[in-house]
Amino acid sequence: MSTTAPVLDKHIERVIVDQHQIADRVKAMAAEITANHPNHDEPLVTLCVLNGSVVFLADLIRHLPIRMLLGVIGASSYRGKSTESQGPSIWHRMHSPVDMKDQHVLIVDDILDSGNTLRLVRQTVEDQNPKSVATAVLLRKPDKAPPDVKAEYIGFDIEDAFVVGYGLDYAGEFRNLPHIAVLKPECYEHDGA
Ligand code: 5GP
Ligand code: MG
Q1: Which of 8, 19, 26, 109 shows the greatest Cβ crowding within 10 Å of its Cβ?
Q2: Distance, CA of 108 to CA of 48 (rounded, Å)
Q3: Which of the two residues, 150 and 67, has the higher pLDDT score?
């Protein structure tokens, strides 16, 4: 495995999606989003769901050759060293100049797992009466994602495992891995999760 640094690599059991696959797919998703954006003179509000989607969002928006505005919203359902969802909560609402009323909004999140986070975020956006709403996720766990939570753009369907890297963390770490990986079981166990 060639990745970043031995200090990180030694915790990794296996890589699920490597950095080249991610780069190709993010470009293709951006092309789809661009093609579907109804009017390139109207800005697209990209809404970054903190913290996990910052890396994905940063790469994605650089492949969108359209007018855009950036907003952020904080939502989390995995807290501390847990690898089990504890139910989503919004911890940061946008206090930015980005008003979503009558705007085209693209929610950008890292992963669609139980769907509880995206259901809450999407409702929060829809409450602001945007012109349109779509969601882009880099990853989906298809065995778990419920049918009522939509993601119009999906990077990769993955197995039901707790993954890290490319923005996704375990207990705040590993967001800087360039790929999507599963940690060795003892990493979770040693941390008492
Ligand atoms: P959901 O509410 O869909 O169950 O979970 C969504 C959020 O939980 C994601 O945005 C992500 O922050 C976190 N999450 C879900 N699955 C994983 C995972 O496998 N690894 C990590 N690091 N976070 C996850
Ligand atoms: Mg998240």
Answers
A1: 109
A2: 5
A3: 67
Report CA(138)–ligand 2 centroid distance (Å): 11
- Strands (E) in the chain, as ranges, are 12-17, 44-50, 68-76, 89-92, 104-112, 132-140, 153-157, 163-164, 180-183
- For residue 110, indicate whether it is catalytic: no
The torsion angle over the Cα atoms of residues 132, 123, 47 and 95, rounded to 10 degrees, is 120
Q: Which of 59, 109, 110, 113 is catalytic?
A: 113
- Provide the residue ranges of all domains of the chain, joining segments of one domain with +: 20-159
- Which ligand is located closest to the Cα atom of residue 175? 1
**Averaged pLDDT, 17-25:** 97
- pTM here is 0.91
Q: Which fold has domain 20-159?
A: Rossmann fold (3.40.50)
Q: Is the CB of 167 under 6 A from ligand 1?
A: no
Quick: pLDDT tens for 25-74. 999 999 999 999 988 789 999 999 999 999 999 999 999 999 999 999 98
> Does residue 168 line the site of ligand 1, with CB under 6 A?
yes
